[in-house]
Amino acid sequence: MSDPVSTPALRKLRFHVLRHDPRDATSVPHFQTYEIEEAAGMTLFIALNEIREQIDSSLAFDFVCRAGICGSCGMVINGRPGLACRTLTQDLPADITLAPLPAFELIADLSVNTGKWMRGMSERLETWVHSLQGDPDLRRLEERMDPDLADRIYELDRCVECGCCVAACGTARMREDFVGAVGLNKIARFSLDPRDKRTDNDFYELVGNDDGVFGCMTLLGCQDVCPKDLPLQTQIAFLRRKMARTGLG
Amino acid sequence: MKVIYTDVLVIGGGLAGLRVAIGARRRGHDAIVLSLVPPKRSHSAAAQGGMQASLGNVIKGQGDNEDVHFEDTVRGSDWGADQQVVRMFVNTAPKAVRELAAWGVPWSRVRQGDRDVIINGQKVTITERNEAHGLVAQRDFGGTKKWRTCYVSDGTGHAMLFAVGDQAIASGIPVHERKEAVALIHDGSRCYGAVVRDLVTGELTAYVAKATAIATGGAGRIYRVTTNAVICEGIGAAIALETGVAALGNMEAVQFHPTGIFPAGILVTEGCRGDGGLLRDANGHRFMPDYEPEKKELASRDVVSRRMEEHIRKGNGAKSRFGEHLWLDITLLGRKHIEHNLREVKEICQYFLGIDPAEKWIAVRPAQHYTMGGIRTFHTGQSRTLKGLFAAGEAACWDMHGFNRLGGNSVAETVVAGMIVGEFIADFCESPEGELDIPMALVREAMQAERAKLDALLNGHGPEQADRIKIEMQQIMTDKVGIFRTGADLEEAVDRLQKLLVRSRNIGLRYKVDGPNPELVTAYRTQKMLKVALCVATGALARTESRGAHFREDYPQRDDSVWLKRTLATWKDPSDTLPSLAYEQLDVMSMELPPGWRGYGAKNYVDHPDTPNRASALASLREKMQGADRHAVQAAVMPYEHLLPERFRGRNERIDEKLP
Question: Kind and range of the H or E element at B89?
């Protein structure tokens, strides 16, 4: 077996990071450049921490799992939204421009408030199973579900709410209240789930408008950047047809 | 002074904390959850492989029940666990899976008929029962007699966290994000809430509550090589320790997961081995059967990790520029299985190693993974020494894992503990004890004390750099307090950590702003983490035996005659540089499963003097009750059901065990 960590030529990397602290009245958004040496297997997680440890202890950014699972580290990497923790520097040119995700409230530098946005979206779209009965009897066998259906629900449930789809969305830039591909995917997920007793009419109330499924301009940015490869366009198209039918019916 | 009042303050927004809050809220109590990050980003999401619950739906799980799960868990713990708590847990776990199913978790389901699986390196066809079709499926995991691990592909924790997180939103529970509890407010006998720092503005707020619950997860980041998320720094345990009153239990019990990706330490799930993956050495040889003929790759994690390191020491490691490692081979599972059931693993291999695991082997080496120890509590989750303080999940030691946790039991514990502790917190709030006379002077003093500490860091000009100290601490822990421990190494570790602690009191910041200041955060957390690290190292040094994940090369025997006891660490005075250790004896005469051989690992232990007596008492009791049903026998041997909150009592239905 070969050494799993390939050995790229060591380069000097220049990181151009968009910096700003909106709570500091004297702060002006600007790019700051940091130079570090590339290492084998270096990810943006490793690089940014090295910059913070060795060059600039004030640099703000967010990482949690650093394994591509939690969705904390969405940022714009050379113009494209993505998860920084699983982006290898060897796949990038030596000049790397990093900016915070647009469309979210800026906390500082590369850190944005996706949590607040996602909670607001969840509250609006009521992204939970609405069952008609109360709590089930937990001592009894669980309700059955077709194995394929469970897999299909999970396929849509894999969204990590990183916000990349919102950052890449033309509509979201124009319409502040647009629920984004993340929100529409949630509706698709819950409408697929037989445990959720909401009807198409109920879902229409939530997304049957220009802040919902009719706001999408089919630019496909969301699907291009989704780190989890969710079938967002298919889901949105499907939902749009269903909602149009519901609206006309 | 800004003060926020609530009934229940939950510190930590992962699965345990959210479920505690939901439980309290459903009983009519207001709850606020504090979280360092948006709660759906919590480390619970990283639990890939699954959650143990003895549903017994799949054919390889047939015959599973609470008794089998109980025995597996106690053996896994190397008899360190509180057996009544284990009983509470195994009886509630199936209910937790079923609750989560109702809340929308898309559990992978049983499909009737034939399917091919890999068992012991061989392709085997098994046939699922028609009557199981559509019920929640289980996979194999280490240290278990039956296939018991319920799963959602390999995104189990993620799916659970999102379902529970959305339930918290549905219940209208506020989550205050990017807030960090930096101290508990207490008077030495009762906890009144916490001093909380806003990680964005730097502002301090006092959160005053009838009950305060810590659910901040583990402390993996005191180690350099860990699978844990960067937020798992043990700060919840540390602020409990800093009360001087609350105790941390068994902090020396630290689990190393066999398959951390080398060298980054990112986890690949035990499900890889559960589904049939093999460990191989530099020569491609499958070595685990040489050491563990019975359980092979699926012995408990402590045993597999030790065998791997042992094998590397014998010169069988694959060499790379970062050091030596072994290989995890899942190619035999086939592309379809990997892309369907081990998707996250595939993504991780692709993004972090640049390989396709359906074709190439994965470089792995054991990495710190789980903190068995934590805030010592009663079975209710309440601290034994500080009233009004509760803990749940990995941050707690109520103690269901003892000295080694089984895979699939942690994500199960988060929700089970959340359910149980949530009820007990509600009970507490409704009891006279829960009534609160708020001592505002105490609140003000606590706020001032924390403000002063932060100001000292912000205004100080000490020569020490926070991140340097932190990295040195992590390196000491990984090098000296790891899988194989010796008295000499541990003495050195304790000595060096103490010096680091003293130095950490002299940190100067390069960046002196009290807003979003990562350096300031590293500074005050490092001071706290060092105390937790010292609890681990001193506990390990004092424990002159080997038990579960705690392995002393100079004391390789498990010694029940001396060490069948829980370590309790407290930090008596802020100026101390060492914790005070005390011990809590485990009572063999009340155990349902008296200590013995685990069935894997070295057969090397000294009995407790009570063990033969208890064993014969149990044997004669069981003989007397021959023919009685298993529940009746269990209740006679070690009653526990009275300890459970009423709503979670009762038997669990299975295909083969119908409820009337």
Answer: helix B83-102
Above 60 in pLDDT, residue A6?
Answer: no
Omega into B94 within 30° of 0, i.e. cis? no
Per-residue pLDDT of B571-596, as tens digits, reads 999 999 999 999 999 999 999 999 99
CB atoms within 10 A of CB B536: 31
What lies within 8 Å, CB to CB, of A45 at 6+ separation is: A63, A66, A73, A84, A85
A57 touches chain B (CB under 8 A): yes
Phi/psi of residue A126, nearest 5 degrees: 50, 65
CA distance B313 to B365: 12
Confidence of residue A9 (pLDDT cuts 50, 70, 90): low
A212: pLDDT strictly greater than 70: yes
C-alpha to C-alpha distance for A89 and A98, rounded to whole angstroms: 12
Is residue B62 within 8 Å of B157, Cβ to Cβ? no
Domains of chain A (ranges, CATH numbers): 12-111 (3.10.20.30), 113-132+143-248 (1.10.1060.10)
Across the interface, whether the CB atoms of B134 and A139 are under 8 A apart is answered no
Nearest to A17 by CA among A64, A90, A84: A84
Residues A203 and A188: beta-carbon distance below 8 Å? no
B115-123 contact pairs (CB < 8 A, 24+): B117/B275, B117/B276, B118/B275, B118/B276, B118/B332, B118/B333, B119/B276, B120/B276, B120/B296, B121/B276, B121/B278, B121/B286, B121/B332
Q: How far is A69 from chain B (nearest CA, A)?
A: 7
Which of B15, B43, B58, B109 would you mutate first to test chain A, the one with the most A CBs within 10 A?
A: B109
- Given pLDDT bands bounded at 50, 70 and 90, which one contains residue A1? very low
pLDDT at position A4, please? 46
**Mean pLDDT in residue range B532-559:** 98
Nearest by CB to B348, from A67, A150, A161: name it: A67
Q: Please give the pLDDT value at position A40.
A: 84
Is the pTM above the cut of 0.90? yes
Cβ(B628)–Cβ(B634) under 8 Å?
no
User: b/e string for B220-248 if b means 16 or more Cβ within 10 A?
Assistant: bbbbbbbbbbbbbbbbbbbbbbbbbbbbb
**Mean local confidence (pLDDT), A82-101:** 96
Helices (H), chain A: 44-54, 114-125, 147-157, 164-167, 170-174, 180-192, 200-207, 221-225, 232-248
Which residue matches tokens 């469970």?
A: A150
